[in-house]
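User: Could you go from structure to sequence for me? I need the amino acid at each position, not a summary. Structure tokens:
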């Protein structure tokens, strides 16, 4: 009875031998696991058949039998297999332009490729010159969680600390009007937002503080960033309408107005405040800041050398500001509205308008039927947060809840390429098509003239027309050839920033065409829900959006 119980136990713990065959670092590796109990050992034919399927170079049967006999589960280099590289996990390393951060994107291995290891990631970083500030724990988490196809920060440099004989403390907010730096895309209350910070004559604006010791920084590639030393003392620079005390340590306002930084100097600029812009005021062009408490009538122009604030609605008007623009209501340009902004643009909504913004565009509710050229980020943070129709070019990232609508209205979005470069490329492509079509028409007319001459119609006017068409065709052919050489070069420059992303918190509708540089994505018929898109090395990558684990945008750095 006891013997029977033992035999049953042996039977239940029996397990056949197994093997793993995979690519790693230019070789095919074989790991053979021995059988357990009365299990059957691996047959050489099983391994040989798997090798044929994976197209691994042949190995002697004797060698395979030896490895089966010594089966200990440890991987053994079997044969060189350079062709297996296509099965390996792809590890892309992205180093920021300032060399202060490095990120990796690990694409999963194909069947027959070994899972990536921490050493593989470290080797890839080393090959790209990343040697400082590597976060090994971040790499270990990435590998353990198999967070494939996601950009993961794995190295951070050390920023230098500038030394100075003294420092400046400002008694006004130099970054006012930027609540998104702390609000994590919470809803922005445009009614409470204000770019104008008024001061009175005699107010203390800035003062010098004790010195700071310099500390050198290092990039992730190991380069030393020399900190500015205290060899030259920092000076308190006063601009227009300011005055320094006798010790040059305190700066005061010399007039009433808007205090702000301009080219490193504190200035107090006059502020124009008007009720409305209409036929009573005419167009406004002013070197300082402009506050329009009411509305701007159709057809009028407001240009400000500083910031521009508008309290109520804007229609078919032209707004230009070297600084920021705040539209506390919004703009409906009816196809003729124009905005040019050197800083950031805030609005409740933008409709039927052409916008060129060198900073960030932050909108509460909707962008509709508009053409936007945004050098940095475009973020919609209100209850609707919709982008519908139009052509949007964003050098940084685009964040919204809905992109397109259920009517499948055409919406074109370009991410990660500065607008002027994308516009140059599109213009060259359009010119190439137009010139080619014109050349085709001229060549057809030239063929007709030559057929007529061959048929005996050789009067002077026909011969002259043929010569003119021939000259015109040669000129157009030269222009087409020049454009054909130019377009590929421009296309090569359309490399989307790896830091740029598209975030759609709710729905991405059919009818939207999305591009990251030269990569294009057309939304399928059933749309896409809660998604994040970014440019990979070979294609556009997609991952799900998790509200509790939202990505962060850097509003202080330019996209490219």
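Assistant: Here is the amino acid at each position, in order:
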């Amino acid at each position: 009875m006891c013997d029977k119980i033992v035999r049953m136990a042996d039977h239940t713990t029996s397990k056949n031998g197994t093997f793993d065959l995979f690519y790693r670092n230019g070789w095919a590796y074989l790991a053979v696991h021995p059988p357990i109990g009365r299990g059957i050992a691996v047959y050489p034919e099983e391994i040989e058949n798997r090798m044929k399927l994976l197209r691994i170079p042949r190995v002697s049967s004797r060698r395979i039998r030896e490895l089966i006999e010594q089966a200990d589960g440890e991987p053994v280099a079997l044969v060189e297999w350079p062709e297996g590289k296509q099965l390996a996990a792809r590890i892309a390393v992205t180093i920021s332009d300032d060399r202060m951060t490095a990120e990796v994107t690990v694409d999963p291995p194909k069947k027959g490729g070994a899972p990536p290891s921490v050493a593989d990631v470290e080797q890839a970083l080393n090959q790209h010159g990343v040697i400082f500030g590597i976060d090994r724990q971040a790499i270990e988490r990435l590998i353990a969680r198999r967070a494939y196809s996601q950009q993961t920060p794995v190295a951070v440099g050390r920023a230098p600390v500038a030394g100075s004989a003294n420092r400046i403390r400002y008694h006004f907010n130099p970054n006012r009007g930027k609540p998104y730096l702390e609000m994590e895309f919470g809803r922005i209350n445009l009614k409470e937002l204000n770019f104008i910070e008024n001061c009175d004559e005699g107010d203390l604006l800035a003062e010098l503080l004790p010195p700071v010791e310099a500390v050198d920084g290092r990039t992730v590639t190991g380069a030393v960033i020399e900190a500015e030393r205290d060899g030259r003392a920092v000076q308190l620079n006063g601009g227009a309408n300011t005055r320094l005390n006798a010790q040059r340590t305190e700066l005061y306002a010399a007039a009433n107005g808007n205090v702000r930084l301009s080219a490193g100097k504190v200035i107090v600029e006059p502020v124009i405040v008007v009720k409305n812009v209409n036929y009573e005021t005419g167009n406004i062009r002013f070197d300082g800041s402009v506050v329009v408490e009411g509305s701007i009538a159709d057809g009028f122009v407001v240009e400000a050398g500083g910031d521009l604030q508008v309290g109520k609605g804007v229609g078919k008007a032209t707004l230009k500001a070297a600084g920021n623009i705040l539209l506390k209501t919004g703009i409906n340009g009816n196809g003729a509205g124009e905005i040019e902004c050197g800083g950031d643009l805030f609005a409740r909504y933008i409709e039927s308008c052409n916008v060129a913004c060198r900073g960030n565009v932050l909108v509460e509710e909707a962008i509709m039927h508009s053409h936007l050229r945004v050098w940095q980020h475009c973020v919609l943070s209100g209850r609707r947060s919709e982008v519908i129709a139009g052509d949007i070019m964003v050098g940084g990232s685009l964040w919204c809840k809905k992109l397109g609508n259920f009517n499948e209205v055409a919406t074109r979005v370009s991410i990660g390429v500065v607008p002027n470069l994308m516009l140059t490329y599109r213009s060259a492509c359009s010119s190439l098509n137009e010139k080619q079509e014109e050349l085709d028409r001229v060549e057809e007319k030239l063929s007709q003239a030559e057929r007529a001459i061959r048929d005996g119609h050789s009067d002077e006017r026909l011969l002259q027309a043929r010569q003119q068409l021939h000259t015109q065709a040669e000129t157009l052919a030269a222009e087409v050839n020049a454009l054909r050489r130019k377009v590929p070069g421009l296309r090569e420059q359309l490399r989307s920033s790896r830091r740029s992303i598209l975030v759609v918190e709710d729905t991405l509708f059919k009818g939207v065409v999305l591009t990251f540089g030269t990569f294009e994505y057309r939304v399928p018929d059933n749309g896409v829900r809660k998604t994040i898109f970014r440019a990979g090395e070979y294609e556009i990558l997609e991952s799900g959006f998790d509200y509790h684990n939202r990505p962060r945008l850097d509003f202080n750095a330019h996209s490219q």
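One structural detail worth keeping in mind: Residues 88-156 form one domain.
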